[in-house]
Amino acid sequence: MWNQREGTFLTYNAATGFNNAAFTNTNSTGGVLTAATFATTDIARLTASSTIAANITVTPYALSLAANITLASLTEQHRAP
Predict the structure, then answer these.
(1) Which of 22, 30, 55, 79 is most exposed by smallest CB count within 10 Å?
(2) Spatial contact of 1 and 18, defined as CB atoms under 8 Å apart
(3) How would you label 30-57 residue by residue, b for 16+ Cβ within 10 Å and e otherwise?
(4) Would you kindly state where each structural domain of the chain is located, as residue ranges?
């Protein structure tokens, strides 16, 4: 879930309800993103124009885009069910 007013993702726990989830990785340098740019557990924010390298899958847990993204190449990808 997204907190539109504060620009953050939300987390939930039984004691306090919904709370802002802190970004664990902010990429503000731009350039070429690789698979190592974000961990699969990152709550990430991208604030500089970037290119996703060819044949790379970027898979953070959550990603907030505040910049332009360019794909180096576009190919169809399938995941096994």
Answers:
(1) 79
(2) yes
(3) eeebeeebbeeebbbbbeeebebbeebe
(4) 23-72
Length of the chain as a residue count: 81
Which tens digits make up the pLDDT trace of 13-34?
999 999 999 999 998 888 888 8
- Cβ atoms of 69 and 46 within 8 Å: the answer is yes
Can you give 22-78 as a three-state secondary structure string? CCCEEECCCEEECCCCCCCCCEEEECCCEEECCCCCCCCCEEEECCCEEECCCCCCC
